[in-house]
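G., the chain you wanted modeled:
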Amino acid sequence: VYGFNNDRDAIHFGALKPEGSSKRATNVISKKPAWVTVKAKGNLSDWMDVQNNSFYLDANLLKQVEFQATVPLNATVGNYFARVTFIFKHPWMRYLEKETERNFSAG
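Predicted structure as tokens:
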């Protein structure tokens, strides 16, 4: 692991070599109770694991969500990116979803 950069716009895993891994975390909070689902898309998403991708969050309770990126042995050198979406479903509003996105990068 060569470095991290936790900017406001993105969480950077830094430069990783094949079979290397790195962990980063971000905090999630909601003013109202909600079921939260975490989804990732992008060429880095296949290499990422989310500590807990679905959970219940009480109002005003801060929860840390951890992400781990592991580079496969056959990976080629390049920049990789994933867009992570947090979907909040409030129990009393069955069809209302609020999405918040966070960008993740490595390379």
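Residues 1-6 have pLDDT under 50 and may be disordered.

Shout if anything looks off.
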